[in-house]
């Protein structure tokens, strides 16, 4: 299944003694043993190492096959057989009668059901009929609406011009996210398989979408084309795929499109089954929804309410409740005015209540519903205006350090208030050296590292006037990202990720952009990276709110009202 023979190395990391017995059914049985400590000693001394004979007490009954016996275990491989069974079940797809391949633990065969999530699947979307046939019998809680099972089809072909780029598998969702949070693992993943084994632990976290919908997802994507040619796409650790590989980029983009496609159907199915998308709805809001009899209008209203309920606004429950109450009040009044003017279609493409598009719609309503959106926008404009008054580049960097790390919406206007940990100038020398032994003695990540909304955000401010080439930035971005992920894997309880590998967004702020082509942009995007200039950052933020500002300039009545609050 793999390459480079690392199975041998993995045995050496698990046990001090390995016995091998093999018999082809024709000639004499062959046996050997390896004493790992003695092997390491021979290597240090530059001496040859000779295999010993297998321990006769472990010799199996002669039959065709091979036995590998690991003894004197050096690492904790789990305290129960259940732990081992689940790990094997989740990492290999060739188990069971469909594949004529068995794995037994203490005499019991491992089956796909041992993966631990099939019993909780509520909706499922397949890439191929074979997976549908094999998986359907395992789905005991699959929902149905009007006697029709809640399952759909997804395109298996990634490129109509290349018939080799075809995938198998499925994307599924459960009814409650907590069912994917096992005590010893996070199942909220889209695992990528190639030739029967996990090739990329999780694709979902790399897509970088932090919507609530993603918390319900589990799935397997089989992309054998990633490992059926002469290109070795695996990283040095053999645990993931090189992120800038062209075929992997195609796969990642295709899966992102599939998630966008199924999210709307997921919404419809959940509403049809009477589910709320997140927390219990506000009773006053629910009463308002119940009074909307038109199905299309009700759907748009529910979409608006759901967007508010899924937006993180405060650091504690009381702040969250108060701010959402204000948003609900504004949204209901605004919705009713749009409905009276027969302009509800404006809400069709709005996905976030904090987006500039949403603010622009409600800026046309000259009453109280504008108040809270104005409050959010006004505070953001104060930051933008502070930047715009600065002429000196070095002073601009200092102001960026002061404001940017607490106002990450400057990088992406759709972000709300990013909460969680803030660590400036975290020294990551050790992590950098694990991936780059030649790193300088003073290698450090003197940038900000923030977490929130289920992701990590890395921002580095390059000194104004200092030129940095694109290749150097790309190499730095790769190292930074790997260092963060390495640290998170070694500290699985940090920042509430519970062992899951979060999306990592990387931003470089620089005086002059070294990007010369779309290929450069694609290479950086492969690492969820962006290169921004200081001036361009402010210009983009200003532009994002320009439509709101143009209207607000003409309507200062709300501004006077807000100032009296």
Specify the helix fraction band.
25-40%
- Tally of extended strands? 18
Which stretches are low in confidence, meaning pLDDT under 50 for 5 or more residues running? 365-372, 416-427, 439-446, 554-565
Structural class category: alpha+beta
Widest β-sheet, arrangement of strands? 9-6-10-13-11-12
Question: How does the major sheet shape up?
Answer: 6 strands, mixed
Distance N terminus to C terminus? 67 Å
Give the helices and strands, then pairings.
Blueprint: H1 6-14, E1 15-23, E2 30-35, H2 36-45, E3 65-73, H3 81-91, E4 104-105, E5 108-109, E6 121-126, H4 129-135, E7 144-145, E8 148-149, E9 151-153, E10 168-174, E11 190-194, E12 197-200, H5 204-207, E13 217-222, H6 246-272, H7 283-290, H8 295-309, H9 317-340, H10 356-362, H11 371-388, H12 393-403, E14 422-426, H13 429-435, E15 445-452, E16 455-461, H14 470-490, E17 504-510, H15 518-525, E18 529-533, H16 534-544, H17 546-554, H18 557-564
Parallel strand pairs: 6-9, 11-13, 16-17, 17-18
Antiparallel strand pairs: 1-2, 1-3, 4-5, 6-10, 7-8, 10-13, 11-12, 14-15, 15-16
Short structural description:
With 565 residues, the protein is an alpha+beta fold.
Please describe what this structure looks like.
The chain has helices spanning 6-14, 36-45, 81-91, 129-135, 204-207, 246-272, 283-290, 295-309, 317-340, 356-362, 371-388, 393-403, 429-435, 470-490, 518-525, 534-544, 546-554, 557-564, and strands at 15-23, 30-35, 65-73, 104-105, 108-109, 121-126, 144-145, 148-149, 151-153, 168-174, 190-194, 197-200, 217-222, 422-426, 445-452, 455-461, 504-510, 529-533. 38% of the residues lie in helices and 17% in strands. It contains 18 helices and 18 strands. Helix 8 (295-309) packs antiparallel against helix 9 (317-340) and helix 11 (371-388) packs antiparallel against helix 16.
